[in-house]
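Journal club prep — side note

Before the paper discussion, L.F. wants everyone to see what a predicted structure for a comparable chain looks like in token form. Sequence:
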Amino acid sequence: MRCFAAALLVTPAVTLVAPIARAPSQCVLQSQAEIASFMEATLPQDKGDTLPASPIMDFEKGPEGLLYKDDVVGTGPSPTVGDELEVHYAGWYYAPGSTEGVKFDDSRDRDANKGLMFELGIAPIIKGWSLGLETMKQGGKRSLIIPPTLGYGDVEVSSAGRPSIPPNSELRFELELVTVNNDIIRKMRRSLNDFLRPQGSDFVSPEEKQAIRDGTLKKPLIEQLFQKKD
């Protein structure tokens, strides 16, 4: 069983949801030969892709067993909780006992010009993604190796049209942090709406949400509160 499976950050709406159940990683590094066999692992030939060999010593140790390697260091801002991020990613899983990485998702296969959009600390992404993104900067590219305890644990994850991810799989993600939107007005509006929203209800209507996304919402609540009166 491998202890160093590479991991890509999760992106699709289905794979974004992190199961509550978690299982301790049973990954045990047993031999140098096992390392070599992992480094030679590639994606299935019919995918036309290969997973570049990345010696484990090139990765830095992150929190809670996460491993990461910066392929490109960004020059923009680092994200904080509540920032809206655009992330391109590709992901592979390594089933327990397997040295062959299976590609399960790639944001560029859906839209090469637009990555996954979500709010850090609010969207239910897996913990390995959150920990990996927190120390990146806009424009950066990072490879992640995510143990099962920071991924999907002992839960099988399935999505229509994509390979199912077996329980206790290690993940490899290659992420690109395209944009970091840290607009303070957007954050304040979100916080105020969350505060005013009755428990179990949706304070912002679907029409308002779409208008916010389109930038056409007139006099948002937060702007009304701060509007100067003559």
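L.F.'s comment for the group: The chain has two domains: 13-182, 185-226. Keep this in mind when we get to the figures.
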